[in-house]
Amino acid sequence: MCGIVGYIGPREAYPILINGLKRLEYRGYDSAGVALISEKDAQLNIYKTRGKVDDLEHQCASKDISGTAGIAHTRWATHGEPNDVNAHPHCSQSESLALIHNGIIENYLVLKQLLVENGYQFKGSTDTEVLVQWIEYIKVTHKVDLLHAVQIALREVVGAFAIAILEKDRPDQIVAARRGSPLAVGVGEGEFFLASDASPFVEYTNRVVYIHDDEVAVISREKPLKIVNLNDVAQTPEIKEIEMSLSQLEKGGYPHFMLKEINEQPQTLVDCIRGRINVEANNVVLSGVIDNQEKFLNAGRIIIVACGTSWHAALIGEHLIEDLCRIPVEVEYASEFRYRNPVINPGDIVIAISQSGETADTLAAIKLAKSRGAFIYGISNVVGSSIARATDSGSYIHVGPEIGVASTKAFTGQVTVLSMLALTIAQLKGTIAPDDYTRLIGELAGVPDKMEKVLKTDPQIQELSKIFTYAHNFIYLGRGYNYPAALEGALKLKEISYIHAEGYPAAEMKHGPIALIDERMPVVVIATSDSVYEKTISNIQEVKARKGRVVAIVTEGDEAVTDIADYCIEVPRTDERFAPLVSAIPLQLLAYYIAVNKGTNVDQPRNLAKSVTVE
Ligand code: G6P
Q: 126 CB less than 6 Å from ligand 1?
């Protein structure tokens, strides 16, 4: 949450910072701001506003935006409402320091009290303003330079942060630091970039250094990158190559990133399985599993921790692993897992799933499981992310940057990796018959073509969406593998259209939600042909008997459901284990078009953020 950007070098900073903020708006978008050291009068100019980056640009149109050193921020409010005062950058009392921050300072009240007792005054209610004042206080009382003040100050700070600080009298440097929140430094020729991820500087350099926890980076004009820890011990920067391309960060002719990402899925699935599934050689090789095969062969239990859409992928993983590998699996919300006293036995494996690789609760769950001796396997999309680094081994989903806040291609990528993981373990353990192994490899490799086909239902779904634009509630039902798919369909709808939607196991509906059903209630049922198809039909009958309006996702050629449902969307036949990969697409499209009809901000829905780095 919150995006930070910084630049120092020979170019004008403002356009780089503004474009960078636009790329990071997925991280939060309730206020934005920029600080620059003016070329004209060496003043520290700070402009900030409630609203989006466009609003900031509008405000800056008539201002002095000159300067070759600057920092900028897009906010997702935690402490203090999103208004102009609480927007970042925040300034210290003497107005010589400007600071941007992503994260939460947990002991800000204690620090604030101390600062107030020492004559400091505060304009807003954020923890960030406390942090910048705290750094200034240390700088003044210890009579040290900014770097040392930051090191000393951060030793007393409890919480998570990625920060960048601009000092009025030092236009030649920016000081940045992190603990728990992501921070990347782009290394150019005689220039440096700072950002929450590499996307703001991908067109300027392909070299990046990911800052680690409790490291402070100093980026200076004409000097090499300096990284030290909080005790002033020099750290060697590890330069990596950026893997994303500019075209991946653009809409490519689509009206929204979400629609682009839905349509990319046949290709992203090919990218996800490339080099892992080999149909001719009849094998699936997930190297993270193979490298740790003893652990997987001897695992007594697997616990999967995740949040949001990743948690839904985890539920499908539970079915796959129990079904194919005969290993007991538990799925936990990371936020719940971390705050109870979970039993972790020797030999348990914890799988952490996170698209962004930065989700604070998932990261904390990993740390807890690690401290209790579990082997941790990560499934993430972002190379070099905090979760990728915190895990013992893992697999990337390789679906390319996901910009739309509502997750689409990452979900199908996660389910695909879990499918490959289950097949790899099942083969190693001998819990799958050779014929089934061969058949399922072929089925999984064939999913991208089926996705291509199901994307052709787009015009039909667009038409269908018009009927439901003004619905106030939705119920989504499914059984077996289709139950998590129903949860995910409901989540997509509520995230972007703000229509209340509940996902439920179809049979469980009669124990409560059935009371909600009348002629106004749309019920989406995922009723593809599988081992519980007949049972699902009975559940549809229960809905119809109460006059609910049924939208069914069915297998091509279906007759029984088609006869009773009000509307049907056909998807190609696939093994039930991989059915959620195919049925995800019409559910994503239905949510998308209903949101478009309602005129909501599809890519940046209200109150949400893509990367939740606060608990
Ligand atoms: C946020 C996003 C969701 C996402 C969840 C978990 O709430 O809005 O789309 O599913 O975080 O994110 P992760 O990056 O850990 O998968």
A: no
Q: What is the pLDDT of residues 201-257, one digit of tens each?
A: 999 999 999 999 999 999 999 899 999 999 999 999 999 999 888 888 888 889 999
Choose the residue to mutate in 196, 307, 335, 411 for probing ligand 1, maximizing ligand atoms within 8 Å of C-beta.
307
Do 109 and 188 lie in one domain? The reply is yes
Tokens of 61: 């149109």
Q: What residues contact residue 306 under an 8 Å CB cut-off, 6+ apart?
A: 313, 314, 331, 333, 334, 352, 353, 354, 362
Burial zone of 87 (CB within 10 Å; 0-12 exposed, 13-18 middle, 19+ buried)? buried
Q: List active site positions.
A: 2, 610
DSSP characters for 243-261? ---GGGGS-TT-SSHHHHH
End of a domain among 394, 416, 445?
A: 445
Contact 79, 127 (CB under 8 A): yes
Q: What is the C-alpha separation between 114 and 123, in angstroms, rounded? A: 16
Same domain, 399 and 463: no
Atom of ligand 1 nearest to the CA of 356: 14
What is the secondary structure of 568-579 as a DSSP string?
Answer: EEEE----GGGH
Let me know whether 82 and 150 are in one domain.
yes
Instruction: Mark whether 239 and 259 lie in a shared domain.
Output: no
59 domain-assigned:
yes
How far is the C-alpha of 491 from the C-alpha of 226, rounded, in Å? 44
- Same domain, residue pair 241 and 349: no
Measured CA to CA, the distance from residue 591 to residue 415 in angstroms comes to: 20
Measure the CA–CA gap between 154 and 131, rounded to whole angstroms. 9
pLDDT of residue 17: 98
Domain boundaries, position 259: 252-445
Q: How far apart are CA 179 and CA 211, in angstroms?
A: 9
- Which atom of ligand 1 sits closest to the CA of residue 495? 8
Instruction: Decide whether any atom of ligand 1 lies within 6 Å of the 354 Cβ.
Output: yes
Among the listed ranges 27-41, 412-426, 434-448, 586-600, which one has the minimum average pLDDT value?
27-41
Q: What is the rounded distance in angstroms from the CA atom of residue 64 to the CA atom of residue 61?
A: 8
The pLDDT tens digits of the residues spanning 284-293 come to 999 999 999 9
| CB-CB contact of 30 with 47 (8 Å) | no
Residue 14: CB atoms within 10 Å? 23
pLDDT above 70 as % of the chain: 100
**Final residue of a domain: which of 445, 472, 501?**
445
Whether 129 is in a domain gets the answer yes
Q: Which residue's CA lies nearest to atom 5 of ligand 1?
A: 308
Tell me, using a 6 A CB cutoff, whether residue 432 lines ligand 1: no
Residue type (1 letter), 162: A
> What is the token pair recorded at 465?
């969406």
397 lines ligand 1 (CB under 6 A): no
Distance separating alpha carbons of residues 268 and 571, to the nearest angstrom = 19
Q: How far is CA 613 from the centre of its chain?
A: 9
For 270-296, give one letter per residue: b (16+ CB within 10 A) or e.
bbbbeebbeeeeeebebebbeebeebb
